[in-house]
Amino acid sequence: EFGDRRAKAEKMFGLMDGFLKNDSISLQKDILDHVEFTVARSRFNFDDFEAYQALAHSVRDRLIERWHDTHQYFKKKDPKRIYFLSLEFLMGRSLTNSVINLGIQDQYADALTQLGFDFEVLAEQEGDAALGNGGLARLAACQMDSLATLDYPAWGYGLRYQYGLFRQIIVDGFQHEQPDFWLNFGNPWEIERVHVSYPVKFYGTLKEEVLNGKKCKIWIPGESVEAVAYDNPIPGYGTRNAINLRLWAAKPSDQYDMESYTTGDYINAIVSRQKAETISNVLYPDDRSYQGKELRLKQQYFFVSASLQDIIRRFKDLHRNFDEFPEKVALQINDTHPSISIAEVMRMLVDEEHLDWSKAWDIACRIFSVTIHAVQPEGLEKIPVDLLGNVLPRHLEIIYEINHRLMEELKKSFGQDYDKLSRMSIIEEGAVKSIRMANLSLACCHTVNGVSRVHLETLKTRVFKDFYELWPQKFQCKTNGVTQRRWIVVSNPSLCSIISKWLGTEAWIRNVDLIAGLREYAKDPDLHTEWKNMKRVNKMRLAEYIETLTSVKVSLDAMFDVQIKRIHEYKRQLLNILGIIHRYDCIKNMDESDKRRVVPRVCIIGGKAAPGYEVAKKIIKLCHAVADKVNNDPDVGDLLKVVFIPDYNVSVAELVIPGSDLSQHLSTAGHEASGTGCMKFLMNGCLLLATADGSAVEIAEEIGAENMFLFGAKVDEVPALREKGTTLKGSLQFARVVRMVRDGYFGFKDYFKSLCDNVEDGGDFYLLGYDFASYLEAQAAADRAFVDQEKWTQMSILSTAGSGKFSSDRTIEEYAEQSWGIEPCKCPF
Ligand code: 73E
């Protein structure tokens, strides 16, 4: 009856009742069906969490529907695809973002009200997917949203860690870490693909053989682990397209240690099989420090190998000739973490597809592009040669061959300049002979991207100076951006309505340039009233959250001043705390009439310290010690409150950012490659107090430096200031606040001693002393501006209006055109 596949599909489609319906009644029915058949609870008795699960599954059905259609369409059109490889993705929650992007938020809200539930309450039930450390990982998540929204034929590939970034709990002001077993209660947003799996091989030996008269190396691996796909649909906004984020989990392979089974060691065979799973167990919680760990290398290779097998299989479904590969495939490597993929592509093309080396290399050079996020040469990843040779012997050999050819080429340009050759070599000689993963990427990639203009400049003139001189055309600037869908539409619905109302359109949600239209109304009193109300409601929500978590009551009239990001010396949370101590000290020394002129502040700090990073942990403790003193001092009252928000993550950011007045970005100039938190604050109309570092420089260009509070040494002044070293003491004010900490004014004198030493006798590498006076001036300017609420509101509106450039939509369009050579492929409705 169904000789024709299409007829069969159409009959089935008819039986399914066509597409899923999105009216309120159909949604209610679907939710209840999921309560009964997915969650297996009675429809007469289920709690908020079960309601969330059912709701999430009904949303997931709608995502899957679009995702199928999108992939069918991509398959039919066979456009060039971009494959985005990243070891980290910080997705946060999915529910609200999904229903907004699907365009059925109102219908769902209505359906839930009818069932006696509240959408927002259920959304709070969802835990964060925290498969990343910070900016780099959240950037990857924002870029996936833009890729889907702009209809690009894209795939994301990464690792499905069992444990995401640790949870931070604070005990007596000290950070403790707890594992984040985020899959405990199930994950409705992923689809397990038991049939999509690939073996990934490790260890073993190399053997020489003659194949078709040619000598070649055969890798005989010693271990095989299975990579199983988990697919996460990513819906675009205002389009039917939904793309895929495919994350790999490690499972024991059937071939894993077969020997033990046959020798009868049944129990040990099973125990050793389980070891395979450790590869995707846990996310490394360290950003920017590399320890050359075997597990980390195995994670990198594991996800890269599985992804490349998947990509090549998809290519081979439709093509026979690898000459076409660069026309169909672009591979983006997110920092150097996935750069072992370069050696893996060479291995697959040469050893498995039997291409000539030079042909294979030509293909590799045409498909790869890389984005570097590090600023310092020390931040670049290196893998000890012994380690790589043991885990991936064939890859080490391939890297040596790549390096040999690179050196031959360099000699043609630089002759016998051995210093230069050794700096550019992929192999670093030294106490521990290592592979420089960045140099491997630079040798191969056709494009090397920096994440802000200042950052690209640093790459060109310092970090990769030699490479820039040789291949200037490879270096490109792709200033980071964030998605306005999550950072305005999802997290600040009142601001979203205000923008749409004043612009007379919702089109800015897809075309954020339109947001500049707000400039025209920056002085309009009606807009000011709406804007201030919006801010106050968001502050109220944040104040409630603060009180629940920390029992500190804060005044809504105070300026909410926020610094939330990973704790790092270079990000200078310590400068912020010392500034708070200065403010406290001033208030303590005021008489009542002076106090009336003080602008009340709530200083909010949040962020995680890497578990082994002692200095960062001390900074967290100092923050709590200062908070204890200040918040309990009756002389101070509402004039100053200090709050540390524990367990900072994406969903906390969604709550905190809309409720802030001022945000701080204090990195020592030249240390923050870009910074993306500042862009989220900017979109939400929070004023920025920042150093001229990373993207802040470009923000100042967009909104006007007069609409933010810039301070501190400039990027090109920093090296000379450091040269001056210890002869450069901070101001008297600086000495005074450091002395207060040293003298035990906040307790824990011995514990904080090293923090004080670092910024005084220790050379003050991050220039806190030098920048302190200028920091206090910027803070005073912020106070003055806040007193004039009309002026402040105008600056706030101009911040949002000037945030258009910092949308990840712009960044992704630049990548598509300048690096990847891909075109949109829009699935018809
Ligand atoms: O300046 C940020 C930048 O905004 C930079 O520090 C960060 O990437 C952001 C997005 O471009 C970053 N993360 C890492 N390196 N740079 C990193 C390194 C190792 C592991 C995890 C993250």
TrEMBL record:
Cofactor section: pyridoxal 5'-phosphate
**What function is annotated for this protein?**
Allosteric enzyme that catalyzes the rate-limiting step in glycogen catabolism, the phosphorolytic cleavage of glycogen to produce glucose-1-phosphate, and plays a central role in maintaining cellular and organismal glucose homeostasis.
Signal peptide feature range: none
Specify the species: Datura stramonium (Jimsonweed)
Shown residues within the full chain: 173 to 1001 of 1001
Q: What class of enzyme is it?
A: transferase
Q: What is catalysed by this protein?
A: [(1->4)-alpha-D-glucosyl](n) + phosphate = [(1->4)-alpha-D-glucosyl](n-1) + alpha-D-glucose 1-phosphate
Q: Which UniProt keywords apply?
A: Carbohydrate metabolism, Glycosyltransferase, Pyridoxal phosphate, Transferase
Enzyme Commission number(s): 2.4.1.1
Q: Which family does it belong to?
A: Belongs to the glycogen phosphorylase family.
Task: Tell me the protein's name.
Answer: Alpha-1,4 glucan phosphorylase
